[in-house]
Specification:
Blueprint lengths: L18 E4 L2 E9 L12 E4 L8 E3 L12 E5 L8 E14 L9 E3 L8 E3 L9 E5 L9 E7 L3
Parallel strand pairs: 2-4
Antiparallel strand pairs: 1-2, 2-6, 3-4, 3-5, 5-6, 6-10, 7-8, 7-9, 9-10
């Protein structure tokens, strides 16, 4: 099974919480919950830890439903899973396009944001204000609204 494709599994294909590293990229297998705000997942969007019991480990795209606020980013989606299903999210390594704040530039720290599925930023050479999710590795794509980055969630 290739975690880079994301998955959209009704029943788990591996134990939830499983971590895999393939080609220098790290992935975690989690259940998806779109939260009270019914916020759909987006390829390249980030999700947050949803509940405290972690049974099963669950990710949400509704930032207002997270258990840990802006510092609780759980991973970045590579696909669009259906609410209530299981999927792989990327937690480490290079990602070609993570949803980002409009002003994100190369070298910026990408951090949690109150905008669902989007990373905020702390400018390069400035101390990050929240836990770093990724480091921006290039200019923002104004059409896709993403930055190439190196994810450091699980490192």
């Amino acid at each position: 099974y290739d975690p880079s494709t994301g998955g959209d599994d009704v029943t788990p294909v591996v134990p939830p919480g499983t971590k895999r590293t393939i080609g220098g990229k790290t992935y975690k297998y989690l259940k998806f919950n779109n939260g009270a705000g019914n916020v759909a997942a987006v390829a390249g969007g980030v999700g947050y830890w949803f509940d405290a019991d972690f049974d099963p480990p669950t990710i949400t795209t509704d930032e207002s439903d997270t258990i840990g606020g802006l510092n609780a980013v759980a991973g970045a989606f590579n696909n669009v899973p259906t609410d209530g299903r299981f999927c792989w999210v990327q937690t480490g390594g290079y990602h070609a396009g993570v949803k980002s704040a409009a002003s994100t530039a190369a070298g910026d720290a990408m951090i949690g944001s109150t905008t669902d599925t989007v990373c905020g930023r702390t400018a390069a050479n400035t101390a990050p204000t929240n836990q770093v999710v990724a480091w921006s590795m290039g200019a923002r794509d104004g059409t896709a609204l993403t930055n190439p980055c190196y994810l450091v969630i699980d490192e």
